[in-house]
Amino acid sequence: MANVSVYDINGKEVGTLDLNDAVFGVEVNEHILHMAVVAQLANKRQGTQKAKTRAEVSGGGIKPWRQKGTGHARQGSTRSPQWRHGGVVFAPVPRDYTITLNRKEKRLALKCALSSRVAAGKFKVVDDFAMTEIKTAKMAKTLSNLGVKKALVVCPEGEKNTMLSTRNLKGVHLASPFTLNAYDILKYDTVVAEKSVINTIEEVYA
């Protein structure tokens, strides 16, 4: 069973915590992690790009000059791709980039991402953020005391003070146990989780 240290907001170790190997100690499957990251990035794409082909641009209905005898190269339309204001060759059209993973694949990817962070010593547990008021400077100081800069902060849903104190920090992203995903876990150098969410994560994803 994986074991991690628990810190207070001053960065001092105040205890240890055993983690469930079913979530935090699985064998890392790089292929499934790659699939999850590619799927999430693809699903963020709007797919609304559009350019007109020569069949769609206006004009060009008449041959600009006769076929032979002018000294020019033969041309059939002023809206051919080589002309100014002409159509685009192989123009992009709206499309759906969605890649679908099934629930088991998503869950396994999340477990692999969490396990990789624990194995690398990049998973820190905080006893309690204790945000009684909205103070960005206090959250920044807490993360500094923990020795992290680019971090994914995981706290219980509904902690408004923590959320508002975190959202303005550069390189810091906030998540709840129910919005965790493999891409965010791998994107940020360190996962900083409040102790109270560990049981929730284990119950939801075990």
Give me the secondary-structure topology.
Elements: E1 2-7, E2 13-19, H1 21-24, H2 30-43, H3 103-119, E3 123-126, H4 136-146, E4 151-154, H5 160-166, E5 172-175, H6 182-187, E6 190-194, H7 195-205
Parallel strand pairs: 1-3, 3-6, 4-5, 4-6
Antiparallel strand pairs: 1-2
Beta-strand percentage?
5-15%
Secondary-structure element series: EEHHHEHEHEHEH
Report the structural category: alpha/beta
Number of H- or I-type helical stretches: 7
Biggest sheet: strands, sense, closure?
6 strands, mixed
Strand order of the largest sheet: 2-1-3-6-4-5
- N-end to C-end Cα span: 14 Å
Silhouette = elongated
Low-confidence stretches: none
Q: What's the β-strand tally?
A: 6
Percentage of residues in helical conformation: 25-40%
Average pLDDT reading:
93
Radius of gyration: 27 Å
Quick synopsis:
By secondary structure, the protein is of the alpha/beta class. Helices cover 34% and strands 15% of the residues. Helix 4 packs across helix 5.
What does this structure look like?
There is one protein chain. With 206 residues, the protein is α/β, with parallel strands linked by helices. The protein is built from seven helices and six strands. It has a six-stranded mixed sheet with strand order 2-1-3-6-4-5. Strand 1 (2-7) and strand 2 (13-19) form a beta hairpin. Helix 2 (30-43) packs across helix 3 and helix 4 crosses helix 5 (160-166). It is elongated and about 90 Å long. The mean pLDDT is 93.
